[in-house]
Amino acid sequence: MAQAPVTQQVSQQSVEQVPVYRPYLGPEVQQAAQEALAAGWLGMGPLSKQFEEAVEERLGLTDRRVVSTNSCTEALHIAARLIGLGPGDEVIAPSFTYVAGHQAISRTGAEVVFADVDPEFLTLDPARVRELVTDRTRAILVVDYLGIPARVDELREIADERGLRIIEDAAHAFGSSSRGRPVGSFGDITCFSFGPVKTITTLEGGAVVTPDATDVQTLRELRHLGINSDTDARYRNQRNWDFDVVRQGYRCHLGSVPSAIGLAQMPLLDEIVANRQDYCRYYDDALRPLDGLLTFATGWDGVAPYLYVVRVLGGRRQALVEHLAQRGIATGIHYYGAHGYSFYAGCRRGDLSVTEEASEQVLTLPLHPYMEKATLDRVVDGVRSFSA
Ligand SMILES: *Cc1c(COP(=O)(O)O)cnc(C)c1O
Q1: Which ligand 1 atom sits nearest the alpha carbon of residue 206?
Q2: pLDDT tens digits, 78-110
Q3: pTM
Q4: What is this enzyme's EC (predicted)?
């Protein structure tokens, strides 16, 4: 029966833990959520439309359109359905990424083919992709790892030669740009995540950007049970009871409360990105001189950093993980190659030596929208004291 009072437990815990992620859920976000709850329209509604428009505006889109979803996984999935992926098709994808992209492909019955990443930025290597294209290849899945834009222009050449589509998993890259162009404003189909730990969040959420506005209707049908005429009514706070069902659809729209939270976060994006860039540069300056550790060769200009990752050399990653854990600093691993997971063990693949090496080395350090210098210094001191 007797339980230690909470205060006693807290006082025993002398240092505050530093988590890998810490979403920003400040007063304006709480207020937006409360207002949306009070309005009582919880499903897809006018706020969902406003959120899509805010994303379009943020990306500076004119011809392209945004369709919001309840996750990036589902955005990738309806993008895969939009381009008609199915059994017998192959999609070339990096093994070195989150399994959400692979799952979106394999769910259609298409096969994932694993290609290696380039050693510098650990993003899909166009030369390795080219080696793997066959007559069954229908698409390329590319990931903007950490928020650094992938080599989409080079992949475009291969795609054009072979008549392939490109699905860009930009889950890390909302707010990033490539040569001045916002990610999502160029290229083929782009998918964003507004998940719990992403740069800005709708709690759970995502979006598809399509270059072809005529795809919007299909994407809305895919998003909402194949129903052909409900979205416009819902965007006006109404329901259309007299609808047709025109295809196999799913149910992955973005509800009103998540949309309201996303709308409240959107004006903070520039500040959050600038902060994260500063923190990454601070880490770079402190950690670059250390032996046995590699940082990424970017200055973060134009990058909306989602994660801060270092590469730990000499097989010492686990030791560093434990060293930091003892100091109350959490770390993450993004990623282990997906070709190592049993469900994907049988997939066709090219040489994956860069992926395998990176899987052993990468270590994610804490990066939040708002961080105290003392927190950054605690992480830096932790890594330094390990290296020394
Ligand atoms: C987070 C993430 C996803 C999935 O996003 P959800 O919104 O959580 O479904 C997909 N790809 C990558 C690379 C991610 O980091």
Answers
A1: 7
A2: 999 999 999 999 999 999 999 999 999 999 999
A3: 0.95
A4: 2.6.1.-
